[in-house]
Structures are given as structure tokens and as C-alpha cells.
Amino acid sequence: MRNTRRWVEPLLRLATELLARRFVSCSRFDPLHNPDAEQALYDRLPDWFSRLARDGDLTLTLEMPGGTFDATVSALEFRTQMALACEPLLQRLRLRVAERGPHLLQVHARLAEVPGIIDGLRRLPDTVVHVLPPGAAAQGLVGSGVVPGVGHLVVELPWDDGPADFSTPPNELSAPSASVPTHLLMGHQLYRLGPQPFRIGSALGPDESGIALDPAVRGLSRQHCTLRLEQGALFVFDHSRFGTRLNGHRIDGTAMLQPGDSLSLGSPPIELRLLIEGDVNGT
């Protein structure tokens, strides 16, 4: 599978902006409006990311010629914001796995450093995640047509061949196969999902299974969306002109669902949570 390099810069830029905003809020100092401070912020990112991945609330410090500036950051809030930003990527990868089968995902080392992202990638169904070592892109030039006298640039590898043979072994993270949601929770009501399509909207047909919501809710269609089992996986299909959101992001027509996912529709949003039934031992 093609690696995730084109997602690296936007997500790193977002992470940097989130931290810069905390400095503005806490000390009225914007490190992104000062070249030296901006460079200092970038230089500290690896250490800060490491702390944000494991700590709770923490204080980040920038020491500049004009003074020392601090920012308090909630690690949980930061990880949550980054995971939400990564959701469109996860939705696309889920669909690709459902369409083409098991995948090997090669992740840029800089992307893997950002808290909240690797955890989401590890939950992908039937996917093995490799974190490529630093400099992997440059290694791809060795033996490539970009360098005179050599062959072609490798940008994609078959999933079953593993990552390129670099001197530093990649960090391999195996994702367990995703379970299929068995129930849908809305408020205090639990609905069992079966082989038949499960409709959600302001009206149901006489022979349809699903949830009929209050037609007075704004942004709700008569046939808003459908949950349906296909090839051993559960999908949501959006039929509305208002949109259906999965984990905070509007889906593009269809999306694969996993236990723990949240669907929302209407305004104010009605939230529905996907669950899986456990056995008597709690597994």
C-alpha cells in the first residue's frame, strides 16, 4: 500500500499550530510570528510529542532572548484533537481494506511521533503498520532514476513483501482484526443489528427495520442513512443532503464501521454509538 507521506505535513502543521495557540493563550507570545521562536518550537517538537504521548497536563517552555515563555497543555485534549484530524484518513483506509483485503501500511517516522495518530492506525482492520525509519525517503532514491546511473524511484510496495530493507529495522505494529458492531446505542436505548438493512431517518417503511427519529429535528431526512452488512463488515450509507458524520467528520457517501465509532446526524446532533456484544467473561 502507498505510504502516508502526503498526510505528514498537514498533520504536523496542525500539531504545531495547536501548540502555538497554547503559547498565545498562556503568555500572549506567538512563536509562529518570530522566526527564531518558530525554529525553536520546531526543534522541541520531538521531545514535546514524546511527553504528550505519555503525560497528563504539562507545561512547555520556550527560552528566547526576550524572555522565557510557558504554555500549559492538556495531553488528553491534544491527542483527541489530533485523532479527530486523522479521522478522514482512517475512513479512507478502512474502505480500502474492505475493498482490497489485508494491507501493509508504511508510516512516515515524523507522522508516527504525533500523539493520537498511531493508536488510530493500529485499530484499522486487517492492517499491519510499519513505522519507516528516519531517512526512508532518501533511501528510496538509492537505485532510482532520480540519481544518475540508477533505476526507478520506489513509491509503492506490495503488502505481502514487507517494507524496504533499510539498515534500521522498522517498528512493526500488528493491528488485530476488527470486530463487527452488533448493537447501536441511542441515548438509553440499545438496538440489535442483524443481516437486514437498518434504516435511520424521520420515517420508516412498513417492512423496514431501524429507528424513526423526530421529524421536527433539523437537518434530518426521511431516509437519512442505512447500516448494512456486506462481506463480513458493517457499512453506513448516507442518503441525505444534510450529511452523516462519523467520529466528527462527514462521510463521503459510505464508510466502514467499527465498535466504538460514533455516528451523528441532525441539528442539534443526535449521537448513535456502535457497540459489540461481549461474552459472559467480558471479552
Structure, described:
The longest helix has 26 residues. With 283 residues, this protein is of the alpha+beta class. The strands form 4 sheets. The protein has a 6-stranded antiparallel sheet with strand order 7-6-16-15-12-13. A 5-stranded mixed sheet has the order 9-8-10-11-14. The chain has a 3-stranded mixed sheet with strand order 3-4-5. The radius of gyration is 22 Å and the shape is elongated. The chain contains 6 helices and 16 strands. It is 28% helix and 27% strand. Strand 15 and strand 16 form a beta hairpin.
Tell me about the largest β-sheet.
6 strands, antiparallel
Question: In which range does the helix fraction lie?
Answer: 25-40%
Large-scale geometry: elongated
User: Within the largest sheet, what's the order of strands?
Assistant: 7-6-16-15-12-13
Note the beta-strand portion.
25-35%
Query: How much is the average pLDDT?
Result: 82
Q: Treating each run of at least 4 consecutive H or I residues as one helix, how many helices?
A: 6
Uncertain segments of ≥5 residues (pLDDT<50)?
157-177
Report Rg: 22 Å
Instruction: For the record, give the distance between the C-alpha atoms at the N and C termini, rounded to a whole number.
Output: 32 Å
Tell me the series of helices and strands, N- to C-terminal. Answer: HHEEHEHHEHEEEEEEEEEEEE
Counting DSSP E segments of at least 2 residues, the number of strands comes to 16
Structural class: alpha+beta
